[in-house]
Amino acid sequence: MTHRTAARPAESRSVAELVSDLTDQIRRLVRDEMRLAAVELRGKGRRLGAGAGLAGAAAVLAWYGGAALVAALVLVLALVMPAWVAALVVGVVLLLVGAVLGLSARQQVRRAGPPVPEEAVTGLRQDVETIKERARR
């Protein structure tokens, strides 16, 4: 689209010029929406990466802390029962708690849904509806 063509009123331009302008504008609009989607996904990816890194560090520290507490619990129970029974009881309880947490985690992941650039998709849908409305006029 040339600057001279865009400066002229729509009434004085030919249908071919108007169609060409529309094509250029739609192409630019789609390109801009794709850029928005890419920016949005990059931002989400960065946040996801940072969160995953922090979660990994937290998990390692929790693992060591939990192992120390499990050992302490087994040693305390070993004062009132044979050590192997104390270890068995603690192991079974830990497996049950782990199973409950695993089921909860699966439920949360299912609720999260797919990583979709929602703002860009919404903007693109609105743009398409606007174009359709103007085309009907």
Map the helices and strands.
Elements: H1 3-7, H2 15-77, H3 83-112, H4 118-136
Helix pairs in contact: 2-3, 2-4
Q: In words, what does this structure look like?
A:
The protein has one domain. Helix content is 85%, strand content 0%. It is built from 4 helices and no strands. The longest helix is centred in the middle third of the chain and has 63 residues. The radius of gyration is 30 Å and the shape is rod-shaped. It starts with a helix and ends with a helix.
Radius of gyration: 30 Å
Q: By helix and strand content, what is the structural category?
A: mainly alpha
Low-confidence stretches: none
Task: Figure out the total of helices.
Answer: 4
Biggest sheet features: none
Provide the helix percentage.
over 70%
Q: How many individual β-strands?
A: 0
Q: Tell me the domain tally.
A: 1
Strand content: under 5%
Q: What separation lies between the terminal Cα atoms? A: 23 Å
What is the average of the pLDDT values? 87
Shape: rod-shaped
Topology pattern, helix = H, strand = E: HHHH
Organism: Streptoalloteichus tenebrarius (strain ATCC 17920 / DSM 40477 / JCM 4838 / CBS 697.72 / NBRC 16177 / NCIMB 11028 / NRRL B-12390 / A12253. 1 / ISP 5477) (Streptomyces tenebrarius)
InterPro entries: Phage_holin_3_6
Pfam families: Phage_holin_3_6 (PF07332)
Keywords: Membrane, Transmembrane, Transmembrane helix
